[in-house]
Specification:
- The chain is an alpha/beta fold.
- The chain contains 11 helices and 12 strands.
- The protein has a 6-stranded parallel β-sheet with strand order 9-6-5-10-11-12, with helices on both faces. The chain has a two-stranded antiparallel sheet with strand order 1-2. Strands 3-4 form a two-stranded antiparallel ribbon.
- Strand 11, helix 10 and strand 12 form a beta-alpha-beta unit.
- The protein is elongated and about 90 Å long.
- The C terminus is likely disordered.
Length: 396
Amino acid sequence: MAKNRDQGRSSRNKGNADKTTKASPGQGDTLKTNDIVAGQAIAADDFVAAMPHNANKALERRSWLRREVLYRCRQLGSGWQQHTGVLHTGCDEVSRPGSCPEAGTSGFASFPEAVADDKVRGKPEKFAEHYVQATLFFDSQTEFEKAHIAAAFRFELSKVGVPAIRERMLASLVNVSHELAAEVARGLGMEVPDAMPRAIAKPQPPEVAVSPALSLVARPGECGIRTRKIAVLVADGIDQTALVTLHTALTGAGAIVHFVGPRVGLFTGASGEPVEADKSLENSPGVLFDALVIPDGNAAVQTLAGNALTMAFIDDVFLHCKTILALGTGRELLELTGIGPVMDKDPGIILADSADVAKSVPAFIKAIAAHRHTSRDSDPPMNHRSPTVGELPAHP
């Protein structure tokens, strides 16, 4: 019985493959993006594994349409004139990507089936207002959260290759917030377009304009350091006495401490005791940790200073606004990365001598609990290695 089902499935798949138009490159040719032609299809087993998929309204389809986008018509509608299952004519702009006037506007279309009763689609007027909740959310954020939202839109739209789509998204953002649209447009080198026409010309005023509860800052949740990951840089010659005190205090507060070295394995401290690194600068970048401890010890600092991965690690922690504790000679690594001029003023950077590390633990834990120190946050990110304009060397 199972054999008969398998044979039936194989014959159906073979029949579907026969009906599919194949556009195979010549023997020895490489399939490239530029080979894609709208409307042509490739049998999956010609180039890739025969994996069933549900794209293009197909159940377990095994052929791949050679198109720019999966469904037509969308904003990338060149060469195809099919909208929601209904062919439309008279569109003389479809040869230019992103120019199709009906792309993205038709939405849901009812199937033209004769029915005995009247078919009514009725919804309250509020269902036609698509922007009020987005406006409420954006206006309820703090300034640095608004900057992050704008940066996220800028990042995603910068990857869109069709300017018409960028402009269309900006036009939609104007309805959310002109401030947001202007900031995103500035990052894309574009002018702010006119607002996209709304579904209803005069929407009702919102019931709530601002809700502080929508901001993460308003409801930070648990404010301790339990489960926070702390990186401690290690190398041969570190002052491990201070690290033992620090490790005991941090783990007692619920933090997870990782020793990060130029490699994994054992290192020897200044007193001769072994220290095992369970992470390396190569496999665990600074963005994976919530705070950083830079150890004391001349030999260890010299070893770490000679490794470019150390500088990149410290840079990541600093630029992501995380807390840094530098013990003794460890502050020399901050100076090498260019953080020296601000390390005495930054609330997220704590400097201490190894002998006084116990006194610095409460301040370090409090700074970690703040999670990020947004005073460092800037757009674009601050180049802490760069001198000020007055200190720039003169050109010969």
